[in-house]
């Protein structure tokens, strides 16, 4: 017991001096190496064995005393270790999933970009198909507009169709015949507009004045007024210069003056397009401007000016002669020859 106590004391003193357990082993090896007697070595061996046995007993007692706390600590440690291991595995799996998602997202992004481009292409193709369908109906609609004298609408439709056929739809081979047809109509459209412009500028305006004078003549014959027919009042007649500069004109049967602008002129589908000659001539000029045929229009007006004025004089002379002849017939029936 004393030897065991000494051995334990040496063990404790050695452990207190050094926290490293290898210090005790070095001390024992030094003791065994310095002793010359086998008996001393056996004695030292016995001391060590007894000291270790005592430590085991003390350790067993401590384990028995703190068994519950030790078991709980071990279980807690095992649970923590398992959780850490599971967390590491999950983190590893998450990293792998993230890498996989990144790869898939790159693929999906390329697919989405491809689908987006295809969507734009399909939308453009559908717009072209709709435009082709509308253009195919242009000849029929153009004929209807020309028949109803909706020249501004017809001009807009024709110019837009030709621009499309010679622009985005230029490569469509199936529209070659329609392209030639509409292009030809566009090249000749201004001739119709110029004829209509001359008709209103020289013929319809003078016919209106002549009609007004006929009505005055009928009124004078009813009241048996044999005074000469008054001169034509041309001060209120619209001229192109007045129309473009002041844009003032009087409507038939009305003395009120209105102001208009060539850029603001629009066709009214519910009214007769020729009801107001000034507005109708403005529509014709606007259509000619859209066709870019204003220089040709000016040249045509200059070339036909003398001829049209001679025709006005001829028609006016015929009207005056007819009016005078009719008045003479009326007076002769009343036995009042002159």
From TrEMBL:
Record carries keyword Transferase: no
Domain of life: Eukaryota
GO (cellular component) term, any one: exocyst
Coiled-coil ranges (or none): 45-97
Signal peptide boundaries: none
Sequence ranges assigned to domain Exocyst complex component Sec8 N-terminal in this UniProt record: 46-144
Pfam families named in the record: Sec8_C (PF20652), Sec8_N (PF04048)
Keywords: Coiled coil, Exocytosis, Protein transport, Transport
Coiled coil is among the record's keywords: yes
Biased composition regions of type Polar residues, renumbered to the chain: 329-338
UniProt domain Exocyst complex component Sec8 middle helical bundle: residue ranges: 273-322
GO biological process: chemical synaptic transmission; Golgi to plasma membrane transport; protein targeting to membrane; protein transport; vesicle docking involved in exocytosis; vesicle tethering involved in exocytosis
Disordered as annotated region, ranges: 1-21, 316-338
Function description: Component of the exocyst complex involved in the docking of exocytic vesicles with fusion sites on the plasma membrane.
Family: Belongs to the SEC8 family.
Protein name: Exocyst complex component Sec8
Organism: Fregetta grallaria (White-bellied storm-petrel)
């Amino acid at each position: 017991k004393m030897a065991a106590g000494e051995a334990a004391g040496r063990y404790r003193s050695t452990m207190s001096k050094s926290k490293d357990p290898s210090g005790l082993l070095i001390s024992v090896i030094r003791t065994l190496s310095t002793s010359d007697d086998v008996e001393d070595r056996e004695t030292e061996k016995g001391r060590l064995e007894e000291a270790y046995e005592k430590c085991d007993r003390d350790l067993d007692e401590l384990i028995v005393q703190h068994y519950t706390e030790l078991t709980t600590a071990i279980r807690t440690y095992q649970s923590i270790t398992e959780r850490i291991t599971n967390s590491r595995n999950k983190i590893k799996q998450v990293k792998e999933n993230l890498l996989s998602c990144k790869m898939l997202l790159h693929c999906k992004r390329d697919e989405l970009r491809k689908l987006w481009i295809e969507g734009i292409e399909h939308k453009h193709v559908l717009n072209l198909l709709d435009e082709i369908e509308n253009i195919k109906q242009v000849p029929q609609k153009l004929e209807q507009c020309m028949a109803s004298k909706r020249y501004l609408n017809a001009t807009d439709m024709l110019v837009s169709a030709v621009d499309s056929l010679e622009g985005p739809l230029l490569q469509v081979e199936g529209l070659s015949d329609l392209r030639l047809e509409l292009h030809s109509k566009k090249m000749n459209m201004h001739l119709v507009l110029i004829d209509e412009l001359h008709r209103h500028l020289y013929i319809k305006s003078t016919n209106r004045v002549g009609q007004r004078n006929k009505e005055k003549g009928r009124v004078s014959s009813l009241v048996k007024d044999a005074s000469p027919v008054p001169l034509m009042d041309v001060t209120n007649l619209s001229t192109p210069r007045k129309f473009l500069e002041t844009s003032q004109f009087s409507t038939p049967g009305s003395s009120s003056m209105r102001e208009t602008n060539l850029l603001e002129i629009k066709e009214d589908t519910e009214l007769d397009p020729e009801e107001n000659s000034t507005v109708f001539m403005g529509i014709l000029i606007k259509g000619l401007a859209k066709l870019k045929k204003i220089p040709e229009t000016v040249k045509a007006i200059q070339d036909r000016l003398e001829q049209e004025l001679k025709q006005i004089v001829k028609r006016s002379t015929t009207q005056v002669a007819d009016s005078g002849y009719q008045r003479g017939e009326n007076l002769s029936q009343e036995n009042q020859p002159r």
